[in-house]
Amino acid sequence: MDQLDDGALVRACLSGRRKAFDVLVERHRRQIYQLCYRFVGNHEDASDLTQDVFVRAYRALGGFKGQSAVATWLYRIGVNVCLNRVSVKAPRVAAIDVLELVPGPGEPADQTLIRQETARRVRHAIARLPPKQRATLILRTYQDLPHEEIAGILGSSIGAVKANFFHALANLKKLLNEQ
User: Fold this and answer.
1) What one-character-per-residue DSSP string does 109-167 give?
2) How far is it, in rounded angstroms, from Cα 133 to Cα 102?
3) For 29-68, how does the pLDDT look when each residue is reduced to its tens digit (9 = 90+)?
4) Residue 135: alpha-carbon gap to chain centroid
5) Among 69, 90, 126, 164, which one is least packed by beta carbons within 10 Å?
6) What is the DSSP letter of 2?
7) Domain CATH for 38
8) Which domain holds residue 49?
9) pTM here?
10) Considering the domain boundaries, does residue 172 fall inside one?
């Protein structure tokens, strides 16, 4: 089943072969986790949200029409799950990310501290952006998706995505300057 494309895996899953969905999860889990992590800023919540995304995807698999790529469809579910979580619960920004504690090769301790503080400030500022701007910024900057795909994920026009990204960057700059 690993050789099948995503569309064939969806069809296999709908015909009763549950292993096909496991392959889809393995194929897309990392990107969905990264998306969720960028929204919530900590590993525990990101893991929970990732699991929720795939549970919702499995339940909605019969409604997948194939008009977009499976990855785009999963991103859309992921963004919706994250935005719903963030609107219900204030985002918890991790105080320290374990990866930030590791100094770069030959990096002096003061540079490590500056890098850690900068990363914390950026995460905190991103968490304060309006939901659509936050989603657009995360999908464009961290997931490196093109504007067209982001428009499909968010159900917006390409122009709206570009405007949201522009405003997100301006608001992020303003928020970082306030700190």
Assistant:
1) HHHHHHHHHHHHHHHHHHHTS-HHHHHHHIIIIIS---HHHHHHHHT--HHHHHHHHHH
2) 30
3) 999 999 999 998 889 999 999 999 999 999 999 999 888 8
4) 8
5) 90
6) T
7) 1.10.1740.10
8) 1-92
9) 0.79
10) no
- Which residue in this structure is represented by tokens 């795939």? 54
- Phi then psi for 118, rounded to 5 degrees? -65, -45
Number of domain units in the chain? 1
Q: How far apart are CA 172 and CA 157, in angstroms?
A: 22
Q: What are phi and psi of 106, to 5 degrees?
A: 70, 15
C-alpha count within 13 angstroms, C-beta hemisphere, residue 126: 23
Euclidean distance between CA atoms 127 and 133, whole angstroms: 10
Q: Is 103 helix (H, G, I), strand (E, B) or coil?
A: coil
Tokens matching residue 62: 């019969």
Closest C-alpha among 37, 53, 44 to residue 127: 37
Q: Which tokens sit at 158? A: 């390409």
